[in-house]
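batch job 7 of whatever, protein = Pentapeptide repeat-containing protein
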Amino acid sequence: MTENEIKKLQEENERLKKIRPKSNNEKLLIGIIVGAFVGFVVIWGLNIASDYQKEVYLIFISIFIFIAILFLGTVWFRNRIIKKFFGKDVDFDNIIEESQSTLNIVSEKVVQTLPIESTDKEKMKLYAPRIISFLLWSNYRNWALRVMLTFIAGCSGLVVTMLTLNQNKLFESQNKKMDQQTQLVEASRRSTQMFIMGEVLSDLNTELKDPLNKKDTLSNTLVGRIISLSRSMKPYKYLQSYREGGYSDSLAFTKIISPERGQLLITLLRSKIDSVFFRKNILGRNNSNFSYAELNNANLGKANLPKTNLAYVNLSFANLSDANLPFANLSDANLSFANLSNAELGNANLTYADLSNAELGNANLTFADLSNANLRSADLRGANLSNTNLRSTDLTNVKSLDRTKVDRYDWLTFIRDSLKLKGSEKIYNEYRVDSTHRSYYYINKEIKEIMKPILIRKK
């Protein structure tokens, strides 16, 4: 070798020495990261695939059949394939004998170069081809066994995993049904209070029909029974059928609600109890409890319910036009699509209430608390929002605020810049504040007219 070649080899050796092989810790860390990623992908994929077990099995069987057909086709048409790629015909009938003969020749040549005795060379010539053939066959056999075992283990693992995921889903479904059964038992137990309510209402009817009861009042005993009954009718969940996708009937639990409280309240409102007596002795925050009452689609027009506890009630699609609800607790109530036109809601608690698509035309909401309420697509035409708490209220796509009364001339700027309410930007661009709203006050024995701000839609 020349000096240049020796120098190049030395430089190459130095370069290879500088290349630091990865340590076992680095390899372990890389393996953990890759394994975690692969495991996450596999678990995620199997969770999705568990919903389509039949399809997964069919795809897996189809792939297996395709591979088997491809393997058989390769064996059957091996002559054409080899000729296509190598341009030569191969006689597979004699290839084993030719391979063995070639192996013998190679082993003889190798043995002849070995520095051993001639007798040992003869033995090596005899045993070398056998040993090489055995090693080749052993390697091929081990490779085939590993491939087969890996394939079987993969199939078994896939099947077991799919069955486990399916079993978990069955357990979840069973637990859900058990929970439904528990809720149904509780609902059945509480529905027995309907019999008690029947007795109370029967006694109520008897007292109101008494000719001596000219004031249409009730005895203290019956009033106490009504209040106790309203408090004992605890809300619960019950199964309700609904149309899923418009094709089939399905069952689902309602939200926590009390249908019995709703029926009791409607019955009391329809009775001929003196309104002042009813408001003073039965209603009120310290008396009856009608929270969580189910009153959807109820006709409560002109209902007189001041200071009534109606938190979490379901009044969706209900008619509450001209209703009297000052100081009422309607927090978290569902009033979506309800008709509240001309309703008296002064000082009412409507925090977190759902008033989406509600009709609030000419409703009085002075000093009412509408913080965090949902007023999406509500109609507030002519409503009175003076001193109303609108913090975090959703006013998105409000249908109308025309002639709505407010308490400040910068009301539009206030809800947009200070309160930053949803939908306030659109309201700011579509309305302006005018001074056409007149309020009358009795001051120093004289009635004085004071101009108040009102919202007018821009032309």
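notes: Residues 243-250 have pLDDT under 50 and may be disordered.
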